[in-house]
């Protein structure tokens, strides 16, 4: 739940756009905005930042869309030290109203799915390399960390306590 800092600084996702700071219950979120027209959000994955999906920005701007690129909680220029799927989904819902579309990558796709499930209004969604079951990833992490079956269950309980959501439901 603690994303590592990037090894190198990346350029802005939206050249010529404006950077906004939006207060949410999950902390202050950094959001870049450029263009006019229906809003399309570019949503990065775990340990990423808004600039990760920058290649999508120029074609969308040329097509007449407003492009938004958000740093998830504890990522990029957003506040925080810890992040989770539910926490990021709440920040996404709170920071934005309805959107025309979202292009989400990896863990960003899981976050978007949780936000949609909780009522985020989006007409179109593109999920790139979306993880299927959070519990599988959590168990894989536990195995990589050398936890036995009992230790894995303890970790899942601690994870539940930290994010207030059963990982089986994500």
Description:
- It is a single chain.
- Strands 1-2-4-3-5-6 form a six-stranded mixed sheet.
- The protein is an alpha/beta fold and 170 residues long.
- Helix 2 (85-95) packs across helix 3 and helix 4 (134-144) crosses helix 5.
- The longest helix has 15 residues, at 149-163.
- Helices cover 32% and strands 23% of the residues.
- The mean pLDDT is 88.
- The chain folds into two domains: 1-131, Rossmann fold; 132-170, no CATH class.
- The two termini are 15 Å apart.
- Helix 3 links the parallel strand 5 (99-105) and strand 6 (122-128).
- It is built from five helices and six strands, in the order βββαβαβαβαα.
Characteristic key phrases:
6 strands; 170 residues; 32% helix; 5 helices; alpha/beta; six-stranded mixed beta sheet; Rossmann fold; elongated
Estimate the strand proportion.
15-25%
Number of β-strand runs: 6
- Tell me about the largest β-sheet: 6 strands, mixed
The CATH superfamily of the largest domain is Alpha/Beta hydrolase fold, catalytic domain
CATH third-level topology of the largest domain: Rossmann fold
Output the radius of gyration: 16 Å
Measured as a percent range, the helix fraction is 25-40%
Point out poorly predicted stretches.
none
CATH classification class of the largest domain: Alpha Beta
Name the shape in a single word.
elongated
Mean pLDDT: 88
């Amino acid at each position: 739940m603690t994303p590592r800092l990037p090894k190198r600084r990346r350029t802005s996702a939206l050249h010529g756009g404006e950077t906004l700071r939006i207060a949410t219950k999950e902390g202050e979120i950094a959001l870049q905005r450029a263009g006019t027209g229906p809003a399309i959000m570019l949503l990065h994955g775990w340990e990423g930042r808004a600039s990760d999906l920058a290649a999508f920005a120029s074609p969308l701007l040329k097509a007449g869309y407003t492009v938004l690129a958000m740093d998830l909680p504890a990522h990029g220029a957003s506040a925080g030290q810890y992040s989770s799927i539910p926490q990021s989904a709440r920040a996404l819902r709170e920071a934005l109203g309805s959107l025309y579309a979202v292009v989400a990558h990896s863990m960003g796709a899981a976050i978007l799915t949780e936000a949609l499930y909780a009522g985020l209004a989006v007409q179109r969604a593109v999920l790139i390399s979306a993880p299927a079951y959070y519990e599988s990833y959590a168990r894989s992490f536990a195995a990589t960390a050398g936890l036995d079956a009992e230790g894995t269950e303890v970790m899942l309980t601690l994870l539940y306590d930290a994010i207030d959501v059963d990982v089986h439901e994500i």
